[in-house]
């Protein structure tokens, strides 16, 4: 819409005549206000212009090619508590997540933090050199009891996830990943990025289904794992320094102490929960070594470990 303001020398009376109206002093003020309003309306309709939330006018004629989403990671969690307590904790305490997936039937998805803002969900976290992942990730909390302690040896028994929950989770994950172009290898569990004090979403989370859906990288090739495991069974399991080096190469934060220590056990436990959930003792063995080798070694790699 093009509106040309009359020059100062243009008699306002002529403008009134052209408009076919007769106005006095009050009418003159109203006419000026109308012209200003029309001009403001035209600016508002112009798609080249917008305003910041604070009202600062911005010209958006140009758009840079060199840009992408600030979101690099998607981190999955479980809450350990029920839905009412999960909502209370995630909305009233110093912890939050972008989304909360309920355990109802059917499940509901709550958005607790807008994706444009940082949620406080991953805490001290590291993956492949990226630190403090709250600033570069979206967090999804799943209402889930976690595990219960059973027996005299106090074993952790992890509870399963319902099919309904996972059926609801997968479209949400796909939507977030597509919009932010998150790489499949950057969809992680809280235990992977904070292995010294977290294990969620635990060994019962269906990572294999997410891989089958094309959300995650393919699982380690079974034939390659079997062949490498046979070599380790024959020649011996690599030492702990090898495990520390390969776990770090895969992405985990693990100190290269060369010793069989608690921090290495915690990392290896989280690795096993994802890639060999049937046995997540945290102890190094031939199968864990084979899985780790396949995950960190391209198909055309010829060198021996």
In short:
The protein has 305 residues and is α/β, with parallel strands linked by helices.
Key phrases:
3 domains; 13% strand; 305 residues; two-stranded antiparallel ribbon; 10 helices; five-stranded mixed β-sheet; Lysozyme-like; alpha/beta; Muramoyl-pentapeptide Carboxypeptidase, domain 1; elongated
User: CATH architecture of the largest domain, please?
Assistant: 3-Layer(aba) Sandwich
The level 1 CATH classification of the largest domain is: Alpha Beta
The overall strand count is: 11
Class derived from helix and strand content: alpha/beta
Cα distance spanning the termini: 71 Å
Characterize the structure shown.
The strands form 4 sheets. The protein has a 5-stranded mixed sheet with strand order 5-4-8-3-11. Strands 1-2 form a two-stranded antiparallel sheet. A two-stranded antiparallel ribbon has the order 6-7. The chain is built from 10 helices and 11 strands. The protein has helices spanning 12-19, 25-45, 83-92, 163-180, 190-193, 207-212, 222-235, 240-250, 262-275, 286-296; strands at 49-51, 57-59, 73-78, 99-101, 109-111, 126-127, 130-131, 137-142, 147-150, 155-158, 187-189. Helices cover 38% and strands 13% of the residues. By secondary structure, it is an alpha/beta fold. The chain starts with 11 loop residues before the first helix and ends in a 9-residue tail after the last helix. Helix 8 packs across helix 9. It has 3 domains: 12-59, no CATH class; 73-212, Lysozyme-like, CATH 3.40.80; 222-296, Orthogonal Bundle (Muramoyl-pentapeptide Carboxypeptidase, domain 1), CATH 1.10.101.10. It is elongated and about 100 Å long. The longest helix has 21 residues, at 25-45. 29% of the residues are buried. Mean pLDDT is 89; it is low at 1-10.
């Amino acid at each position: 819409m093009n509106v040309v303001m009359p020059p100062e020398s243009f008699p306002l009376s002529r403008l009134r005549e052209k408009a076919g109206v007769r106005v006095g002093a009050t009418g003159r003020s109203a006419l000026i206000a109308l012209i200003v309003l029309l001009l403001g309306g035209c600016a508002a309709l112009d798609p080249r212009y917008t305003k910041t939330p604070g009202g600062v006018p911005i010209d958006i004629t140009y758009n840079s090619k060199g840009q992408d989403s600030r979101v690099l990671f998607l981190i999955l969690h479980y809450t350990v508590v029920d839905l009412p307590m999960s909502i209370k904790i995630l909305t009233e305490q110093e912890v939050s997540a972008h989304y909360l997936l309920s355990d109802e039937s059917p499940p509901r998805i709550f958005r607790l933090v807008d994706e444009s803002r940082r949620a406080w969900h991953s805490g001290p976290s590291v993956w492949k050199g990226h630190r403090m992942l709250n600033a570069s990730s979206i967090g999804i909390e799943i209402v889930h009891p976690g595990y219960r302690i059973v027996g005299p040896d106090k074993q952790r028994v992890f509870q399963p996830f319902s099919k309904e929950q996972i059926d609801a989770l997968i479209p949400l994950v796909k939507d977030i990943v597509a919009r932010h172009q998150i790489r499949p290898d950057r969809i992680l569990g809280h235990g992977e990025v904070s292995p010294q004090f977290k294990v969620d979403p635990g060994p019962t989370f269906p990572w294999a289904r997410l891989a089958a859906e094309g959300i995650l990288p393919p699982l380690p090739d079974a034939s390659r794992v079997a062949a490498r495991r046979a070599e380790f069974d024959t020649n011996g399991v690599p030492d702990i320094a090898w495990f520390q080096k390969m776990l770090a190469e895969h992405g985990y934060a693990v100190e290269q102490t060369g010793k069989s220590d608690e921090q290495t056990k915690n990392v290896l436990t989280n690795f096993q929960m994802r890639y060999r959930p049937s046995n997540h003792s945290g102890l190094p063995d031939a199968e864990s070594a084979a899985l780790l080798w396949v995950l960190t070694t391209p198909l055309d790699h010829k060198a021996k470990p």
